[in-house]
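subagent[fold] <- orchestrator: predict structure for attached chain, return tokens only, no commentary.
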Amino acid sequence: MTELSANPVIRSIGMLRAALEDSVLDDAPRVRTTDGWRHPMPATLGFRHQYDEQVARGGWEFYELRPGLWLLPVNMEAHEEILRHHCFGDLLVLSAVLRGGIIMNAPKGSPGELANGYCTMYSIQEGVNTIYETGNSLRWATIIVDRRCLASATGLENEDLPDSVRQLIACGGTLPFRNVPLPGAASLAVSQILDCRLTGSFRRTFLHAKTLELLCLLLLAFDDNAADKTDEAILSEPYIRKIHEARRMIEQSLDAPPTIPELAAAVGTTRQRLQLGFRQLYGSTVAETRNRLRIEHALDLVRRSHTPMTHIALEAGYEYLASFTRAFKAAYGVSPSQMRRMTRNEAPAISPKPI
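subagent[fold] -> orchestrator:
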């Protein structure tokens, strides 16, 4: 386990709920914290933490959607190193990541990663340590569920859940880090959560609905991958880090990604072990991972920029616009141009209220 170089800021569900209680009053003021401001959003049963500019651009939000069901969207770019200890006890945590690349260390077991285009699921009572390094662009949505009231909070039946989640509900204990690729519909749901411009009760209802949609998609993805996924605990920590490094190399050169032999040589392993590691950690082959990262990057550019589609296609590694359009429609059900028009139409008729 990698040691943190200084004392991290602790973020626990108890602390978040205590801050929420102070934020839901109609006349609640904004509150100064050690690294920014907490802005109340009473009508949404949530609050927003806005970092000071020297710490990060952007911030994160916290919502209690139902008793035992919480949403924590993160949308920020770190301007300095940020150390965190996330302590959610025996709650079930699912982080659906569009942009991350953050290593997570637990007191026991192998490290995990908030990898771009993947969902990480875990339940670790001792908590996990993370470091957001300077320049990290972070966009993800974390869903936190109390295992004791998952059915009442979500409406999901126990027999429909993945085996690992059913066991956690029945017996408690630890659920080690597990990753699965984000389905296209899940990636879109995360984008819609992060980019939501609604306010008041409209925002609360929208986020509640999208969280349940995202949770269903993620649990289905974990259930579908369970039969093919081997136990990650058998992998050594140095080997896991080699696989993480290979994925980062792909991510950093989407327009011209290295070949599988080049990746294997660069991280010091064989082609066969590289493929095995990707399947065990990410539930997909190297090529599938590359293609997913490319199309996730394209989705972000389509929704959040005015970049011409031809330029987006090239930046995502597609030589021809037609090839890019086909791949995008296969992943998200609509063409890039249609997605951009849908995104523009998501804005409310009036400007959102300042927070």
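orchestrator: received. Logging for downstream: The chain has two domains: 9-225, 233-345. Residues 231 and 280 are 7 Å apart (CA to CA).
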